[in-house]
Specification:
15% strand, 55% helix, globular, alpha+beta, 9 helices
Amino acid sequence: MSIHMHMRAVAESEIRDDHTWLAAFMWEAWENQPAEYAAGIAVSIDKVWDDVNDLYAAADALDADAGKLSTLPIYGGRPVAHSADADPSNPPLGLLEPPGVSQAAGFLASVPFDELWNVASAKLVWSGWDESQVRQEFLDRHRRLQGFYGRAAAAGHAVVRAVWA
């Protein structure tokens, strides 16, 4: 089974704070993901997004103030509640408003990946896995998130997250 956290940048004025509406919006974005990824307005992480969050949590060991920002790229913002009439099969959704997107972009631009990796790698490299390959995969995810959040912040956009299972 495949499971992904899908993130989509969007102008805050174009968002309805309604779970049913946002679920439909995110489904359409998911269906158009190749074009949206190419445009730099969407990104997704396969089932290891919690591990990516653990990588960023290593920032706490480097700078006590970083902990306030380290959760923003993956879990930042607030959940969008289901309304009473919402389809319960709709995915969990989250919304990170433009100020949070800017903070996440700033965190990702300033956090030193190599230092994070030095702190977190023992937890992220499972037994029998090639550490250099795992490191490269996390570095690639980090760079994609840096670019995505950087573009979203520069445009003043919010970020909507959906978990597809």
